Amino acid sequence: MTHGRDGCPSGRQPSADRATVGARAEDLAAALLEARGYRIVERNWRRPEGELDLVVDHRGVLVFVEVRSRTGEERGHPLETVNARKRARVVRAARLYMESAQPAATDFRFDVVGVTFARDGARPAITHVEDAFRVA
């Protein structure tokens, strides 16, 4: 395995850079959703047992939004990173949220937003998938 100047394996960003990219992706996702009429309820809801990137209201439906990002597509599209393990973590966090917040909404769903940042600084590509997965 080769390593870059920063000591990270090639193709991976240092953790501080990943956090910055992730925060930018969440900002872009929130802005996109607000422009589409969604209301942000929570951002970065965290508990020791789990976390939710965005919790939004869309016409009375509580939506748990997982935001994934990548710089370039050499390692695949960000939506490809939402595997069964990640979905289970999001569902577990959503259950914790519902227990603690006791929202008025009775309907809910899980959306995913993928943000791909271009290495050349061009405008990021944003993909929003409504009802991306369901609770089994």
Report on the architecture of this protein.
The protein is α+β, with helices and mostly antiparallel strands and 136 residues long. The protein contains two helices and five strands, in the order H-E-E-E-H-E-E. It has a single domain (15-133), classed as Trna Endonuclease, Chain: A, domain 1 (3-Layer(aba) Sandwich), CATH 3.40.1350. It has a five-stranded mixed sheet with strand order 1-2-3-4-5. Helix 2 (84-101) links the parallel strand 3 and strand 4. The longest helix has 21 residues, at 15-35. It is globular. The termini are far apart.
Summarize the structure.
The radius of gyration is 16 Å and the shape is globular.
Spell out the key features of this protein.
Trna Endonuclease, Chain: A, domain 1, single chain, 5-stranded mixed β-sheet, 136 residues, alpha+beta, 29% helix, disordered N terminus
